[in-house]
Amino acid sequence: KDPNALKMVEITLDNMRLGGIFDHIGLGFHRYSTDKRWFLPHFEKMLYNQAMIAMAYLEAYHLTKKEKYANVAKEIFTYVLRDMKYKKGGFFSAEDADSEGEEGTFYVWSKEELIEILGKEKGDKVSKIYGFMNGGNFHDEASGQKTGKNIPYLSSNLDSLSKEFQMSKVEIENLLIKSKKELFQARKKREHPLKDDKILTDWNGLMIAALALGGKVLKNSDYTNAAINASRFIEDNLKDKNNKLLKRYRNGKSGLSPHIDDYAFLAWSMLNLYDSTFELKYLEDAINLTKTMIEDFLDENGGFFIGSKGAEKLMVRTKSSYDGAIPSGNSVAVMNLFRLSKITGDTYYKEIAIKTLRAFSDQVKNSPSGFSQMLSGYMFNHNNTKELVIVAEKMDKALANILDEIQIFYNPNSVILLKTNSNKELLSRIAPWTKNHVKRDGKVTYYLCENFACKQPTTSLRLIQNSLD
User: Fold this and answer.
1) Which end of the chain has fewer CB atoms surrounding its CB within 10 Å, N or C?
2) How far is Cα 107 from Cα 236, in angstroms, rounded to an integer?
3) What is the bridge-based pairing of β-strands 386-391 and 98-99?
4) At what angle do helices 3-18 and 47-64 cross, to 10 degrees?
5) Rounded Cα gap, residues 145 and 165, in angstroms
6) Among candidates 237, 238, 212, 210, which has minimal Cα distance to 225?
7) Taking the model in full, what pTM does it have?
8) Which pairs from 107-110 meet CB under 8 Å and 24+ separation?
9) E strand or H helix at 254
């Protein structure tokens, strides 16, 4: 509820989407910006960047209800599902920065190219909107000289551009949409950057988590289904004969010992898939992955080792906790463990999470910004997390609408469990604390709890919405 924190988030997300770090023609984000304006990117595109950035925009939309953030998440998913999806369901790792022997060649344009493709009038307008210069806005990294090429970017938002170019916002939007299609088709004829077609378990876990969140927040079953298909691919292709995860798949072959990230990120994705579908299979998968993670990677002194106990023996088994371009396996494990503790009622998961936090507490105190995911896990546990159990006869359209009405609220410190006639026995085994939760008066009934101390059950959806808002 801190307005300054939200302002920081929105300024950052707004300017990332305007800048050259975003691929305005083909969508998706480049790996990172080399300047403080978000203008000049390193042109490589990484799967994990798309996943993490998509989640940030989804959360921003979920909280603010501003469509512009939902639209960016959709743009990212369009790129990933179009260019990074393997036909059997998993996701490729990256697209290179270089083509034709130089970085960025695939992505930059001369003003003359735009005019040739779009025509003089439209080409002039679009080149101005995208900040093109006659001598190019893209400078050679070594010499600092202009290259004659331009990186498409937007100098300001559409409202400001509307005033600057004396066009309505709708006119600018339509102009950019139509011109993007033409430029995208022209760009397809260029030599494409090489694609890193490895399918990595951990990075796929991040993408599945993002798509599952997108399915829930945007109410888009295509995203949920893409997440489900990718999870099936991992189940079928990235497990060994002992049902342990493998690290990578390429050209029909799987191999390499897993790391903590593989288990933590995939468990994260299963938890998000449960939130999106309420299918207990995904909750079971998250629990089984977490149990194996604990068995194979846990350090009894706190935290998780990078490699499993069954991997090649090293002189020292190291642990990684710092959140870099992606969060560390330990950070994600903390959040997963707290979520599972709240879902199942099993304090064992919570104890391991707290012990992990203690193991890294000195490092966190010295550099809190390097542990944002771990601190998010801490806050999830600390900030009066709510548990909501919804008891209904069966999953049908009416219940789906009710779930949508509840999930419309951004409430990251909550877990929701769905109990129906068909799943009540399995749910009671997974989360025994829900065993005595039953319907009242033949209606959908809600049990709102904190630390498993539940208020009087209610059949009022409005009352629950007010409590979660």
Assistant:
1) N
2) 36
3) unpaired
4) 130
5) 29
6) 212
7) 0.97
8) 107/23, 107/25, 107/26, 107/30, 107/43, 107/151, 108/136, 108/138, 108/147, 108/149, 108/150, 108/151, 109/149, 109/150, 109/152, 109/183, 110/136, 110/148, 110/149, 110/150
9) strand 253-255
Segment holding 269, helix H or strand E: helix 260-277
Is the CB of residue 86 less than 8 Å from the CB of residue 199? Answer: yes
Rounded distance between C-alpha atoms, residue 174 and residue 32, angstroms? 28
Q: Measure Cα distances from 189 to 20, 126, 254 in Å.
A: 21, 20, 33
19 secondary structure, DSSP code: S
Cα 155 from Cα 17, distance rounded (Å): 11
Say how far apart CA 97 and CA 95 lie, in whole Å.
7
Q: Which residues of 351-361 are buried (b: 16+ CB within 10 A; e: fewer)?
A: ebbbbbbebbe
Give the tens place of pLDDT for each residue, 254-266.
Answer: 999 999 999 999 9
Question: In this structure, what token pair is assigned to residue 25?
Answer: 């023609």
- How far CA 331 is from CA of 23, 209, 293, 353, in Å, comes to 30, 15, 13, 9
50-83 pLDDT, tens per residue? 999 999 999 999 999 999 999 999 999 999 999 9
And the tokens for 330? 């330990």
Q: Which helix (H) or strand (E) holds 267?
A: helix 260-277
